[in-house]
C-alpha cells in the first residue's frame, strides 16, 4: 500500500490518497473522528462488524464513523481518496 498526503488543514482535516495493491487491504478501527472515502479507480469490497460484504467501485463513497470497524479489500487493486476529520466544523 502506498499513502500520499494531499493536504492537511490546521483544523484537524487530512486528505490522503491510498493506493492498495492487488490483494491489499486497509482497516479503519477506533478512529478519533469521521472519515469519508471515495474510490477513484479500481474495485473491491468493504466488510466489518455488523456490515455485510459490500462491493465498491470507481465513484463509490464510504463513510466511516468513530465507532466503526471496517476493512476495505481489493483483489485487483484500487485507489482511495480519504478525507479524515473536521466533520464538526461549521459549514
Provide mean pLDDT, rounded: 90
Question: Please, how many helices?
Answer: 0
Gap between N and C termini = 33 Å
Based on secondary structure, the structural category is mainly beta
Strand content: over 45%
Amount of helix: under 10%
What ranges have pLDDT less than 50 throughout 5 or more consecutive residues?
none
**Biggest pleated sheet:** 8 strands, antiparallel
**Morphology call:** globular
Order of helices and strands: EEEEEEEE
- The gyration radius over C-alpha positions equals 13 Å
Number of strands: 8
Quick take:
With 91 residues, the protein is mostly beta strands. The protein is 0% helix and 64% strand.
Name some characteristics of this structure:
single chain, 91 residues, mainly beta, 8-stranded antiparallel sheet, 0% helix, globular
Amino acid at each position: 500500500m502506498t499513502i500520499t498526503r494531499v493536504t492537511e488543514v490546521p483544523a484537524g482535516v487530512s486528505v490522503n490518497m491510498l493506493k492498495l495493491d492487488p490483494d491489499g487491504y486497509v482497516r479503519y478501527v477506533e478512529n478519533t473522528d469521521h472519515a469519508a472515502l471515495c474510490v477513484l479507480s479500481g474495485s473491491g469490497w468493504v466488510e466489518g462488524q455488523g456490515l455485510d460484504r459490500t462491493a465498491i467501485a470507481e465513484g463509490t463513497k464510504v463513510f466511516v464513523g468513530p465507532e466503526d470497524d471496517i476493512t476495505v479489500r481489493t483483489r485487483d487493486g484500487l485507489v482511495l481518496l480519504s478525507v479524515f476529520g473536521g466533520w464538526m466544523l461549521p459549514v
